[in-house]
Every structure is written in C-alpha cells, then in structure tokens.
Amino acid sequence: MKNIDEIAELLIERRKKLGIEQKDMYMRIGMKQQQYQRIEAGSDVKLSTLLRVLEGLDLELSITPKDRKAPPVSVHEASANLNKEGLQDDTDDLDFWFGSEGKS
User: Fold this and answer.
1) CA 70 to CA 76: how far, in whole Å?
2) Fold exhibited by the domain 4-59
3) pLDDT in tens, 30-40
4) pTM
5) Domain coordinates of the chain in residue numbers?
C-alpha cells in the first residue's frame, strides 16, 4: 500500500466480497454509514478507526519492510513474539500503579 486511496479500494473490494453494504457496517462495528462512506472515499482516518474497520471486514494489519526481504509481520505475531521472548511485567511498576506499594 502506498497511499490512502489504495487502502480505501481494498476496503471496498473486501466489503463487496463479503456481501456487506456500507449501512451494514453499523451492525458490525457501530459505525454510521456516512462515517464509513468517508473512509471508503479516501478520507484520512486515525489508526484506531482503521483497526476497527479492518476487524469488521475480517482483515488484519500487517507491516512489511520496503526491501521485502523479510516476511510481513502481523500485529498479532509481533505481540506473540514479545511474549515468547519472556518479557514480563515489572512487579514494582505494577505495585506503584495499582497502589499495593508500601502495604504489608
């Protein structure tokens, strides 16, 4: 994807392939037809809105390096890989944020 118009075209194609009308997106993701129509028209959207639309169309975001030597990494794979590497929450930070610091 190189621009917003390409993303919008992909969304249109996917919606039609699923047999969904723009007005049906309200039932799938709680977005009014007019708002969704602007997205398909190529309007700039927040990432959170795009992720919501992708979820409603059974799509997911993946990021691919421009050199294309490395395989694409989906958002779900990236978070799963972090968990596999053994990253753990810092108990001291949790205690600070949730108020159990200094309690016996």
Assistant:
1) 17
2) 434 Repressor (Amino-terminal Domain) (1.10.260)
3) 999 999 999 99
4) 0.62
5) 4-59, 66-104
